[in-house]
Amino acid sequence: MRKKLYFLMGFFSIIFTFLIFNNITVSAATAISASDFDDGITNWRASGNNQIAEIPIANNLKLGYAFGLASNTSNQIPSSYLTSGPDSSITNNSVAAGMNLYFSKMNIFLDDGGNYISSVFQGSNSASNATTLNQQNVSTTSPRFMISPENSTSLNGRTGSAFSILGSPDSYGSTGNAGMTSKHFYIGSDKNGNPAYKIVGNFSRTNNSGYKNGTYNMEIELLLRASPSNSAIVQREMYVKNTASTDASFVTLFGEDTKLGSSNNGISNDHVPIWDLGNKQGLYIQDIYSSKEYRLMTTNQLPDGFDSYNGQAMSTNWTSGLSGGVPSGTGAEVNDNPKGTQLTASAVDSSYILKWNEKTLKPNETAHFGSTMGVTAKPYSIPTPTKTYTNETRSDGTNRVGDKLKFSLKLVNNGYGAKWNSQQIVDQIPKGLQIDTSSITRSYNGTAASQPDPTDYDSTTRKLTVPMPFQLTDDQYETVTFEATLTNDALSNLNESGNLVNSAEFLGSDYMVSPTIIDTFNASVDIPVQAADFNSSFTKQVKNISNNEDYQNSTTGKKGDKIGYLITYSVAPSSKDYLVSATTINDEVPSGLEVDLSSIQAKGTTGDWYNQTWGMNVGAVGPIKAGQNVQLRFEATVTANSAGTITNNAYITNVKTSAGQTYSKVLTNDADLNVQNVNTFLSVPNLIDFGSTNVYGKAKTLTNVKTNGELIVSHPNSNNFNVNVSYDNDDATSQLKTTDGKTLPSDDSGLIFIKQRTSSSDDVGTWQPISPTGTPIQTSDFAGNQQSLQLTNYVGVNNWKLKLAPTVETGSYSGTLTWTMSESV
After folding, report:
1. Where are the beta strands (DSSP E) in 103-247?
2. Which residues of 497-536 are buried (b: 16+ CB within 10 A; e: fewer)?
3. Which distant-in-sequence residues (6+ apart) come within 8 Å of 16 by Cβ?
4. pTM of the full predicted structure?
5. How many helices (H) and strands (E) in the chain?
6. pLDDT-derived band of residue 567, with 50, 70 and 90 as boundaries?
7. Separation of alpha carbons 222 and 102, rounded Å
């Protein structure tokens, strides 16, 4: 079997303000409890002292997070701080002094070999007395979370002291912003065992006519926790409960003064430009500190993420970066900038602002707000996965049994000077979702790649495993999409919150740091599901008649076997609504099966079977009342000459219910026939891409950056076997060459190499030249009795090498690899 292999070469200012003070009133505070907000964590415990948590990135680099101080007087992070931190002031009432706000600050930083690397502007971590920790000097110039009336237009601007959630209880008369009081600090952990920290307190503000900052009475939770994706990302969150007796309307803001590095030796650290991440998802900064290159990014890629964002020059008005300089303004997102668009000038003291659109809370209602923050150093990858869905049946925000959902699984490398060698995406499809295998797509950086093989979905284990043999550099991404229908099983598989949970894993390795270690990142999506008044089911079953089987979801067979299929559409006896009509029930039988037309029979709601001599299309359907069903059955002979899985499902179109609901097309489950007794390649790669390069008269070795297509074999007999790949650089019919006949010279060591494994694709492997007679992809045998053996991980990114001689000529080269199987002796 031959397939072509392609090679491609080719601020500081003085502000005077005049304030008009109102009478100040402070309402009664509510008692604080760790369980006041449903944040998903149940093991909270109170603490009077902070601690720090760290997420490993690679080697000695970690992303840390804490409330308050996280380093000692030498800017070091002792390991003891992981259980008992240095800051006992985090629940102190905050104090405002000019642009500074003290205490209870979120602190996200890098631990680079024990060295504390700040990601935001702050004063020295220690007091002038070198033996005394200065606990208050953490992110002093950043107000962090703020709330404001949407129409606040005061010339005094949105200052930290007047608008921050933290406020200044001891000096609130000047602004009306008492802020958070009765603070409690809690420590807990998430489902992955990562520490989580929160500060909960009462919040009050009385509108000051000089600032127009609004009157509010609330309870607030400020929360720090690791991203559930396993990526080096921290989520900064806020829960707000309206404890007033009237509605509360406000926009939420988040302001931060940027800087990279823990020292201000050299003002450039506080004057880093801010750049757009692109795709309306947030912003980033990057800088060099102590000869190392660092990057900070903040995104809206989490539930209840921000709506607007912008970079801005440091100012007392934290909404200066929004249009009109007011909370109702928009930010850089309206421009839909490409990645790398500069948002602040290079010579200004930079900051950024995030904004969530106006929210109105009735008394005792709660809202949630969040953003992510990641900090990394060059050349580490930050693989960031997401899983989302859209309802293609209805747009009212509900999901009901029978609805068709479209899922998108995406991983982007938010690294810095990084290369991520992706391997595969694994999606565990829960009961209650019927996947349409024909809808599965795969793309690389927005460009469609070869479509996944149908065998990538195992209907028995309900697991979708899609090989993703691509190399993702900074900001590049990979995506898998598919459609699925909600079935009645969803209602019996909901979690305590009433959601059907669909989780996926994204596997790969950081080529620049640990290329032989496979890491796994996670993403999940909660799907709230409601029972439909129309309760129906649509199934397809298969049996091997030659083996005297009963109907089931899958079976095996060989060429010549007779196979039976049964299709059933039923309306449950408990269904409130019924099927009024449908256009047809039909089945487009795939190749490898020859239908016996005389065997096609249909059964109506009366229970009588009749021959359907005209073919598979049953014509008009309905009505089908509660407790009734219709069926279609037929027989077919296996004609496939090669092994593999023949997946088949039926469909019903234009279903109309008695309540007026319409479903354009509904599919049955997949009925799988596994064809045996042929040793063959079900799929081989059609592109091994080595990218492009300049040789400049020097020898160079390239590794592949992408593999398009999958390697899947069928070996149903019981003998062990080998899989080999061969290449002959002397054969004019297969050698790498350009369209005008230029070829690639090779030496005695070979031209093309494969990473040969010992017994598993997870092995480190050794580089072996591909010979004309064939090179095994694994030294030990593969076991026999394999109907569909997925081997794409053996031939993915960084599994091939090409040695270029100094004399190689410019051009686009393509050639042919040959794949063979051999029986073990």
Report:
1. 106-112, 115-118, 144-148, 177-189, 195-205, 216-226, 234-242
2. eebbebebbbbbbbbbbeeeeebebbbbbebebeebebbb
3. none
4. 0.80
5. 1, 56
6. very high
7. 15
